[in-house]
Amino acid sequence: MSFLSRLAKGAKLAAVPLALGTLAACASPFRADVSRFQTQLPAPQGQSFAVVAEDPSLAGGLEFSMYANQLAEQMQQLGYARAATPENASLLVRFDYGVDNGRERVVSTPDPFFSPWYGYRGSFYGGRGFGGPWGYGWNPGYFGGGAWGGGRNVNSYTVYTSGIEVKIDRAVDGQRLFEGNAQAVSTSNRLQYLVPNLVEAMFTDFPGNSGETVRISIAPEEQPVRRTDR
Questions:
Q1: Is the peptide bond before 56 cis (omega within 30 degrees of 0)?
Q2: Does this model's pTM top 0.85?
Q3: In this predicted structure, what is the pLDDT of residue 14?
Q4: I need a labelling partner for 195 at 20 to 30 A (CA). Which of 59, 87, 95, 219 fits?
């Protein structure tokens, strides 16, 4: 069973941290953890490639073709030529992708209306309403949300782990030259959004240092892609 097949079936993968800001900020960067391993990839000159599906069930699909074209564009930017068919290629790029079924994540944040001295601030306590600033009126947070109680907002989100896997084999003898995977945790499970970002992360500073896992941050809009320190 391939890496992404396990992912699609909800198998447990290495945890990828999710910044709280990415849950609410639409313009937050897309972050992925990228691991890459390589022997000696041939120089692009004179080398051709074809993108093939690692999972046979994806082969020939229109969705796979769209993502394969995005991966092929990255290979072509490196200087490799795209072959007309896998039989004519000197390199076979095996490609897989997926997203899991998601899991709930609970986030607790301080309540902006909470005072550690007077419980919940509002018209019934600590304000100008009934009871006045030192009022004796009803205080919904005095016992349950005061200095000894809650005073926190609790929200839950569904987060998804997505990933891609790329393997490059020499066609003539099947020797593995490169393999890498990119994983991300986000509140989106839309492959049309996730896969292009993961492909871009995979090819940032390609082929990278063998055996190293790096955090790649893809900025929103038209800002440059950058590698961020862990």
A1: no
A2: no
A3: 46
A4: 87
